[in-house]
Amino acid sequence: MKFGRISRESPDGAIARLVVVEPEKGRVIDLARAGALYAMGKRHATQAAAMRLAQAQFPGSMAQALGASDILVDAATEAIQGSYGDDASLDINNVTWLPASDPPVLRDGLTFVGHIKGWHERMQREVPESMLLIPGFTKNSPSTAIGHNSVVPWPGYIKSKMDYELELGYVIGREGGSVRPEDAMKYVFGITLYNDFSGRDLQHNELPIGMGSTKSKDFAHAIGPWITTLDEFKDLDSIPMEVRVNGETWGKGNSGGKLWTVAELVAYVSLGEKILPGDVIGSGTMGGGSALELGRELKPGDVVELEASGVGVLRTTMGQPIDGLWWPERRKPFM
Prior knowledge:
alpha+beta, Fumarylacetoacetate hydrolase, domain 2, five-stranded mixed β-sheet, 9 helices, hydrolase, hydrolase activity, Fumarylacetoacetase_C_sf
């Protein structure tokens, strides 16, 4: 099953709605609407009660909805049956997409051997021994998550070497802490696409500080177009993946060739802290899945499409650089 989030207009302005996505039928189903119709038709609830029940069961927040992930799929399947789903359906081409999840915490791993080698070569850095000891990941800002068909904000302090990153996003479906790899996949609800945009020139200056990438990445994180539940994938290491820029293929491969498994990454992330429903953990970039590895870069107006079989296509357009932002002045050397 596929779940997404869209924005709909209401008397009080735009509101987020949880939807079931049926690409093969060219439609999405507004679950709050379908759930209310089902409650009135099958349960004989009053309209007011049916709306309260449906909105509680199918909130616009994916994180809140996944708090009940053990029943979410069953409840959605029930709500969209027959005419209830038909009467709550919308044309898939005429909806405004929100980030597929609104993650309480957004993390990004580094697991693909091809990208690890290619990134370090292009950034003129040695692959550290520590990468063989522990899975690497960063914590990113969830406040800058954007959805399918969005324009990517381009802060003017990134002058050149703007980059995309072709990644899968593992969406957490239940709360846990210090889980073990053999149990970790029980906590993964589904898979989405994740584009971790990166300003490589600024990243080159940030990394020697030793605290990771910050402003070179936290201006935009595209998550979408929707989430496909884990049961629809036979092998998480053989998902075909591709990235296109303005319709031209810039990278193609699959989800294999990892240094650390999905289960190991999820387990490591959870050590000593909580993973929460709605959290997104990026797989890291597929080998050859960044412009950096090709010696290329993005320009304003470029249309970037990430595709993964079984998920879909996450499309974004690079915006114009935002001028007039403050930037720190160089300090004098230490005495």
